[in-house]
Amino acid sequence: MSYELFYWPTIQGRGEFVRLALEEAGVDYVDVARESGGMARMMAMMDGPDYPPFAPPFLKANGLIIGQTTNILLFLGQHHGLAPAEEAGGLWVHQLQLTIADVVTEVHDTHHPISTSLYYEDQRPEAKRRSADFIETRIPKFLGYFEGILGRPEPKDFLTGGTLTYADLSLFQLVEGLRYAFPATMARIDAGYPLLGALCERVAKRPRIAAYLASKRRLPFNEEGIFRHYPALEKQDDEATGPTPAQSPD
Amino acid sequence: MSYELFYWPTIQGRGEFVRLALEEAGVDYVDVARESGGMARMMAMMDGPDYPPFAPPFLKANGLIIGQTTNILLFLGQHHGLAPAEEAGGLWVHQLQLTIADVVTEVHDTHHPISTSLYYEDQRPEAKRRSADFIETRIPKFLGYFEGILGRPEPKDFLTGGTLTYADLSLFQLVEGLRYAFPATMARIDAGYPLLGALCERVAKRPRIAAYLASKRRLPFNEEGIFRHYPALEKQDDEATGPTPAQSPD
Q1: Which of A62, A94, A151, B109 is most buried by its number of CB atoms within 10 A?
Q2: Inter-chain CB proximity A99 and B54 less than 8 Å
Q3: Class of the B87-206 domain?
């Protein structure tokens, strides 16, 4: 029986990290919420009695309902050859994935630094201030970390050596997303991370990934997802420095 | 040989989730950075060639270096009886832990919504605005989720039933932290989550946890950690609504 992926039907979002793993593994799956009636099924399952997930994405597989992106990847890694079978390697890949997940959360907060229940437009001054910091301090710190992993002890094709894992797929998606959201920044600094760039090309050329990226199953990036291109967030102008902290006596 | 925990020596922070698991499991461990010379050793390992972690906490155990809090707990759960051995139960506990980790990140961002490299005082207007949203929408959503898990299909002692897992220890720490950081809020709403409250009491009374909490090994909450008590962040005054979004033409 097919696996069933439950995720918002119009965005890449966090679900895309799972889609890439399913595609690379050649797993037969249904992207449920993109089918007729699928959204209603997804919403009903979040209220269900069995292992209710806090939020999409979640995966129905082998009779299990598995929530949280990183947890789904842990499962797929073990069952579909996308992670080392031995403990040390499995934990290391999972650790890398958790660090990627941390960056993804920070990317989300560049356009939603105050609240997920407000529109971007209602938190734009704060978004500009957070984005300025993200661009200046966080992107170099994270990309430098992964470039370092790829270079130690000597340049490698993938994060763990010669074999692709789910963390490589996610790193590809992260870099692609950053290039979409912050094109001027990435154009300026991308060449400083040659091993990361080579990894992204290598992932994009995998036969199943290349076929997926060229298909309609791959949704385009857009301004509803995690990686959003808001030109204002890359512009360093006076407004971007944000308000001067008001002093109050408490 | 003892396990070695590497974490900042003066705060509970994310390391506390690991400390609680080590204590409950009765594992022999050294909190390295709290020993003489330990900080230098910790910093050196982050630049080391083998499995360098992105940030503390990390655990040296059985010849492995394991980073990322949730990953360390995955390891401890499997090796020390703090998670179900079978796959479905293990994934479910990990999923719950990842959701707890998401809340912890949001708590951190209530006082640091713009940048981790700035002081709280330099991002206080934004912190007040983010905290107002966290108190109003996020705390009830997250606590309601865990209360629901504890109640389904009928009230349970722990998240998965009658047996404690690492996720229960982390949920205890989360609620304790929220009570410290947002005392007025929690005093107002705590009674609405009776199963969560009972779980916290149950965890605090476990013999090893009770001994730990009464020892000097348990650092007090303070304003350097994740859970910080800044009275201004709970006050709903005019300043807390934040700046009106400035309109610019882009």
Answers
A1: A94
A2: yes
A3: mainly alpha
What is the rounded radius of gyration, in angstroms, for the C-alpha atoms of chain A?
A: 19
- Give me the sheet containing B64-67, strands edge to edge: B29-31, B3-6, B58-61, B64-67
Q: Quick one: three-class SS letters along A171-196?
A: HHHHHHHHHHHCHHHHHHHHHHCHHH
- Give B130's strand partners: none
Domain positions in chain B: 3-79, 87-206
Q: What is the pLDDT of residues A162-178, one digit of tens each?
A: 999 999 999 999 999 99
State yes or no: ipTM above 0.90. Answer: yes
**Please, are residues A236 and A192 in contact by the beta-carbon 8 Å criterion?**
no
Q: Are B166 and B77 in contact (CB under 8 A)?
A: yes
Q: Is B199:B157 a contact under the CB 8 Å cutoff?
A: yes
| B109: chain A residues, CB-CB within 8 Å | 109, 113
Whether the Cβ atoms of residue A172 and residue A20 lie closer than 8 Å to each other: yes
Report d(CA A90, CA A17) in Å as an integer.
17
- Do A3-79 and A87-206 show the same overall fold? no
Give tens-digit pLDDT for B216-244: 999 999 999 999 999 999 987 644 444 44
User: Using CA atoms, how far apart are residues A173 and A16, in angstroms rounded to an integer?
Assistant: 8
State the Cα–Cα distance between residues A58 and A4, nearest whole angstrom: 8
Residue closest to B15 by CA, chosen among B53, B49, B62: B53
User: What does the DSSP 8-state code read for residue A225?
Assistant: S
Give domain B3-79's CATH number out of 3.40.1580.10, 3.10.20.30, 3.40.30.10, 3.40.140.10.
Answer: 3.40.30.10
What's the rounded Cα separation, in Å, for the pair A234 and A236?
6
A116: closest CA of chain B, how far (Å)? 9
Partner-chain residue, chosen from A137, A145, A248, that has the shortest CB–CB distance to B232: A248
Model confidence over B67-105: pLDDT tens digits? 999 999 999 999 999 999 999 999 999 999 999 999 999
Question: B245 vs A125: CB contact, 8 Å cut-off?
Answer: yes
- Looking at the complex, report in whole angstroms how far the Cα of residue B213 sits from the nearest Cα belonging to chain A: 29
Query: Which residues lie below 8 Å from residue B127, measured CB to CB, with a gap of 6+?
Result: B110, B111, B112, B113, B120, B230, B233
Q: What is the mean pLDDT of chain A?
A: 94
- On average, the pLDDT of chain B sits at 94
Model pTM? 0.94
Whole-angstrom Cα distance, residue A228 to residue B199?
40
User: Taking CB atoms and an 8 Å limit, are B114 and A123 in contact across chains?
Assistant: no
